[in-house]
Amino acid sequence: MSYNSSLLVTETPREEISSTPGRESSISVASITRQRRFKSARLIGEYEKPWIEDWKKGKKGKRLSGRAWDSVIFWTSIFLGFAIGALMCYLSFTKVSNFEYCLVFEDNFEKIDPDIWGYEIQRGGFGSGSFEWTTSDPRNAYTDAEGLHIIPTLTVDDTDITPAEILDGYTLNLTTMGTCTSSDVHASCSIYSNQTSGDIINPVRSARLTTKGKKTIKYGRVEVVAKMPRGDWLWPAIWMMPEDSVYGDWPASGEIDLAESRGNNGDDYAAVGGRDSLISAMHWGPIASVDAFWRTDGKHNVRRTDYSNQYNTFGLEWSEKYIFTYINSRLLQVFFVSFADGNKNMWDRGHFGQDIVNNSALHDPWSQTGAPNTPFDQPFYLILNVAVGGTNGFFPDQIANKPWGDKSLSAQREFWNASGIWYPTWGNGTTRGLNVKSAKMWSQGACGSPS
User: Fold this and answer.
1) Which of 85, 210, 225, 374 has the fewest Cβ atoms surrounding its Cβ within 10 A?
2) Do residue 405 and residue 257 come from a single domain?
3) Is 121 contained in some domain?
4) 262: exposed, middle or buried (Cβ count in 10 Å: 0-12, 13-18, 19+)
């Protein structure tokens, strides 16, 4: 119901209306003898405002009222909060290590510089059971105006090996070809495809570039600006390995993963993360079966996008006291490990003294150094690569219609037989590759000082 303030309300004697039939309809404006106007309910005139008087009393040095004390306590608390927060920030800032660094190399990939990069060429899966055959072919690694591209391709597209020979009757011998860089000649340099045994020629070729023997650091920083590939079962990685296996075979001498991802669609591979997920880790353990990477790893997921859509900076900061990886800024850390926590060494951190493997206790390869960060106290080199598939569990079984089983004796054949499903997801051009704009490496300390 609406109210119109312009209407006039009339009052007619009650007895006059009731005594005259039809009187209601004959009342006119002229018969109005009195009108009632709207009257505000607001307080009119002076009224008490005791809080003002209390404030005046407080200002004159007299006793403060409850309201005045509330104001004093509130603003004092605000001031103390800011002061304590500023002090905490300052103290935390002073504890942050601010090392001096010396640039070891900076590469914007106008070419693949042989003074910085070398190729690792083999077909044995590099310990992870991956299915690619790595090459130095310009089809698999090249540079252009956008930088470096590491591109996986089908073997049948880039060689004279036929689809039938992939499966049976062909011998691939990288040693004879003079290209194999692995010391494991039998497992990593040659293969004979055989229908009966299930062995096949690696169906995919890719590339693996490293700074081994050329550029290393023991403590320092690394930053790689890169865009990840898109395609099922692609496995891009930016990582580091020790120049010398001082403490024994992998993972006893350590491994540092700055950035790994999976090329699968994030929605299809949501259980463990696809190309919307970025993984960093340290691998370490006295033997491979007790690799304790799960104690020192991290993952960062993005929403409504993925790591194949744009370039990101993948970084590492490493000192004698700590190690961490980050994305774009040191503030966005993927994992952080302190070596100064309670002076606990890596053997104790991994609880390896409690492990029994094949009915035997494990050997401690690190504690004799007395350093809490061993094995991460040696020079490491940088690796850029794109692997394909694998049987080490990085692509877990029974997720996203994975077309092979890790324990299958013919896993690579099962993978290749499903190429009609996964190959169309790779797309064309550089979208299927690891695309790198730049790579930088700094050693800790001033240039010319001992590491």
Assistant:
1) 85
2) yes
3) yes
4) buried
Residues 89 and 220 in one domain: no
The pairs formed by 111-118 with CB atoms below 8 angstroms and a separation of 24 or more are 111/143, 112/141, 112/142, 112/143, 112/148, 112/209, 115/214, 116/211, 116/214, 116/215, 117/209, 117/210, 117/211, 117/214, 118/209, 118/210, 118/211, 118/212, 118/213, 118/214
Q: Is residue 1 part of a domain?
A: no
**Is there a single domain that holds both residue 90 and residue 121?**
no
178-211 in b/e form (b: 16+ CB < 10 A) is ebbbbeeeeebbbbebeeeeebbbbbbbbbbbbb
Q: Looking at the structure, do residues 296 and 358 belong to the same domain, yes or no?
A: yes
CB atoms within 10 A of CB 239: 23
Token readout for 125 is 């899966």
- CB-CB contact of 266 with 299 (8 Å): no
Q: Does 169 share its domain with 22?
A: no
Token duo for residue 360: 């035997």
Spatial contact of 297 and 281, defined as CB atoms under 8 Å apart: yes
What's the pLDDT at 153?
98
**Half-sphere exposure of 366 toward its Cβ, with a 13 Å CA cutoff?**
27
Q: Give the burial string for 294-325 (b: 16+ CB within 10 Å, else e).
A: eebbbebebeeebbbeebbbbbbbbbbeebbb
Residues 230 and 359 grouped into a single domain:
yes
Percent of the chain with pLDDT over 90: 74
pLDDT tens digit string along 47-71?
A: 677 766 665 665 555 555 566 677 7
Give the C-alpha separation, 375 to 291, whole Å: 13
User: How many domains does the chain fold into?
Assistant: 3
In a domain, 180, yes or no: yes
Residues of the domain holding 31: 7-38
For residue 13, what are its two tokens?
């004697």
449 within domain boundaries: no
AA identity, residue 187? A
> Does 172 lie in the same domain as 32?
no
Q: Which residue has the higher pLDDT, 88 or 291?
A: 291
